[in-house]
Amino acid sequence: MAQSKPTKPIKPIKATKASRTTSSKKSKIVEGPGNIGNRAIRGGTRRLDPRQEARARDLVMELMGIPGPSGEEGRVAEYVRDHLRDAGVPASAMRHDSAHRRARLRGQVGNLIVRLDGDSRKPRRLLTAHLDTVPICVGSRPRRRAAIVRSADPATGLGADNRAGTAVLLATALALLDRRVDHPPLTLCWFVQEEIGLEGSRHVSRSLLGAPSLAFNWDGGDPSKLTIGATGGYRMDVEIAGHASHAGNAPERGVSAIAVAALAIADLQRDGWHGKIVKPDGEGTSNVGVIRGGDATNVVADRVTVRVEARSHAPLFRTTIVERIEGAFREAANAVVNVDGKRGRVAIRGRLDYESFRLADDAPCVRAAEAAARSAGLDPWTAISNGGLDANWLIRHGIPTVTLGCGQVNPHMTTERLDLRQFTRACRMAYALATGIEPADA
After folding, report:
1. Which of 22, 35, 165, 270 could anchor a disulfide with 40, C-beta 3.0 to 4.6 Å?
2. In the chain, which stretches have pLDDT less than 70?
3. How many domains does the chain fold into?
């Protein structure tokens, strides 16, 4: 796990002298973002009003139209900062960390982190989403018909994954700033580079988060689905070196790196170690997703790069999958021999992208999420994901995290759409969680 360098702490929003609240023997209200210039209303309301819900829908429509693939989230982050600044959040309460400089891809900006004061007797809560989209969403032109939004350009995805989550957090912050309502201390974090291996959450500067006790991450479809577990993923770069020769005059003198790759992949497929994997000692998945190599048809290719992943909820079985993949490529390299007795070579570099996790059904963050869903009129249910989430790394950092949906359908596809009814329910849940809903409140 990458270690974060010490970073200057964020300065949370503070009250002015005239607006600072007082404490009494019965209650202790600490200045929060919605309290600037006024005394907080103890308890307040955990429901968004129609104007705030309409604003949330406007925000997501605008956000989906801003290009921002992984590593190029600058404009999206600027949009969020501008809205928060205009609503009264000082620059001292907003910080970008240096995750983009520690990630594999040197991006434009790091994670955007905002700290908001609240009732110090309550544990700090963390609300998160990621800013980036997959490349197919660049050029999206969101068009709404009734409650469904699609891209008007049929060649692009919509970008609801995850501008919907981005908008949920922003709309929640703005609603808190609208109202004088008591809430726990909050940290809002917009991650970068989620789509290329959870790089933002992996390298987040934990010192800026303020030691939250529980967290809620928005990224997915049905808001009533509470994702409380996810698989672990391991990625490999396989470099295959062969021997070049003229494909017409002396093919027998060459060792084709492409042939080595093809033989390894065919063996994995034949033996049940590629795609969905079901074995007596475990289950998982693997995929050869990228192959690059060769320059011309008349040259026996001497260099090929293959990128492979392995996933499983069981770490030991995932290790078994990785060992099978590595063994298949090494055996294939040994099996392709030219007339001079020369063979290919393989070099494999791999790393854990994210570890699997499973929260207890009665974990405080799970129970709070269930209460929030019920407060929004939903019947919550729990699920385990076969994909990686920012929650994987947050839990690795010691922060129990539930992932919640926000209306996305068919992410990473040109048929992607956003259900605004589901999105609005997600916003209601986020506001309830931000204002401190507990299981007894549902």
Report:
1. 35
2. 1-45, 441-442
3. 2
